[in-house]
Amino acid sequence: QADAAGWIRLHNLWRGCLTTLGRDIWVDEGAARWPAHALDVAPDGALIVRAADGAIHHLHAAEVSIRSRR
User: Fold this and answer.
1) 2-61 per-position pLDDT tens digit
2) Cα three-residue angle 26-31-42, rounded to 5 degrees
3) DSSP class per residue in 24-70
4) Rounded distance, CA 28 to CA 31, Å?
5) pTM of the prediction?
6) Measured between alpha carbons, how far is 62 from 24 in angstroms, rounded to an integer?
7) Which residues of 30-61 are buried (b: 16+ CB within 10 A; e: fewer)?
């Protein structure tokens, strides 16, 4: 349990450092580009986003490139 509690604390600290969370972003996935909103980061490191159609996606770094929508 101590390891799990330590991981939760570390994960929350890491989440607090991520400037992408809460922002509107572009997801570049191969030749496709689509708008999304960055919601959270999963324990496995996946960025959790909500697409414009409301679908929730878990994105890994090797799959996508993220760009801020300003």
Assistant:
1) 587 877 888 888 888 888 899 999 888 888 889 999 999 998 889 999 999 999 999 988
2) 45
3) EEEEEETTEEEEEEEEEE-TTSPEEEEETTS-EEEE-TTT-EEEE--
4) 7
5) 0.78
6) 20
7) eeeebebebeebeeeeebbbeeeeeeebebee
